[in-house]
Design goal:
By secondary structure, the chain is mainly α. The protein has three domains: 87 residues, Orthogonal Bundle (Multidrug-efflux Transporter Regulator, Chain: A, Domain 2), CATH 1.10.1660.10; 59 residues, Multidrug-efflux Transporter Regulator, Chain: A, Domain 2, CATH 1.10.1660; 61 residues, no CATH class. 56% of the residues lie in helices and 2% in strands. The chain is built from ten helices and two strands; from the N terminus they run ααββαααααααα. Strands 1-2 form a two-stranded antiparallel sheet. α9 packs antiparallel against α10. The radius of gyration is 20 Å and the shape is globular.
Length: 246
């Protein structure tokens, strides 16, 4: 009798409904395969990358995740870009989609996938302070400085406190620090983001507070679409200003 406490991702590597020509991996097997190259990989992170649209494993009839060789290659590429280039996951997703489209239009979008909507997913804390420092190759003082300037914040008071996006922020800020750019210099960016978020909230609040599910869903979609458009516009405006610099 199957243990009722087991999760879908813990299913043995046994195909349903016949044998597949390719051996598919469970989520646990993928973690073990990538662990040597990417020590910070975890089941929670793979689920998070799936939520962000960076990998789409197949599912059995019982909804167990199954990863192909192509899925594992895609994950390896995503993790390498995140580790080596310090790219935010949204930028990585856009790059992957442009590469997959193989179109001139996709290649010429200057880093902004116009028309693609930002997907906001609930983020669970997966790193303690010590784990965040280790994964980001920074010391505790550096992380605490980022929390002081509200670039990252604790999602809990104990245990795992930080999410994947916090790690992305740490890595980017660590790279900026090589140019003597400190968090206090970046406060203008944080303030701008807060103002943009407040404006979007003002627009979407009537829908978000609605008791009707459809209306509330429309409010979420409004927040995501406005957030994406603001982000893309800011990227293009900054690019235009930097063109003048050079």
């Amino acid at each position: 009798m199957r243990d009722a406490g087991r999760t879908a991702d813990a299913e043995p590597d046994k195909a349903e409904g016949g044998t597949s020509p390719e051996r598919l991996l469970t989520i646990g097997q993928v973690v073990r395969e990538l662990k040597g190259e990417f020590p910070e990989i975890s089941i929670s992170k793979l689920r998070y990358l799936e939520d962000r649209g960076l990998v789409a494993p197949s599912r059995t009839k019982s909804r167990y995740r199954k990863y192909s060789k192509a899925d594992v290659r895609a994950l390896r590429g995503v993790l390498a870009m995140q580790r080596d280039e310090y790219l935010p996951l949204e930028v990585i997703r856009q790059r992957v989609e442009r590469a997959g489209s193989g179109t001139a239009q996709g290649a010429n979008q200057s880093g902004g996938a116009l028309g693609q909507t930002m997907r906001l997913v609930h983020e669970e804390p997966v790193y303690t302070l010590e784990e965040l420092c280790e994964a980001g190759a920074v010391d505790e003082e550096f992380v605490l400085g980022l929390t002081e300037f509200r670039f990252i914040e604790r999602l809990r008071e104990s245990g795992a406190m930080f999410g994947e996006s916090d790690l992305e922020v740490v890595r980017i800020c660590q790279r900026l620090a090589r140019f003597d750019v400190e968090p206090r210099h970046l406060r203008i960016l944080s303030s701008a983001a807060e103002r943009e978020a407040a404006f979007i909230e003002q627009v979407a609040t009537p829908s978000l507070r609605s008791a009707h599910a459809d209306r509330k869903e429309y409010g979420v979609e409004t927040v995501e679409e406005l957030g994406s458009l603001f982000s893309q516009l800011m990227h293009l405006l900054l690019r235009k200003e930097l063109q003048r610099v050079i």
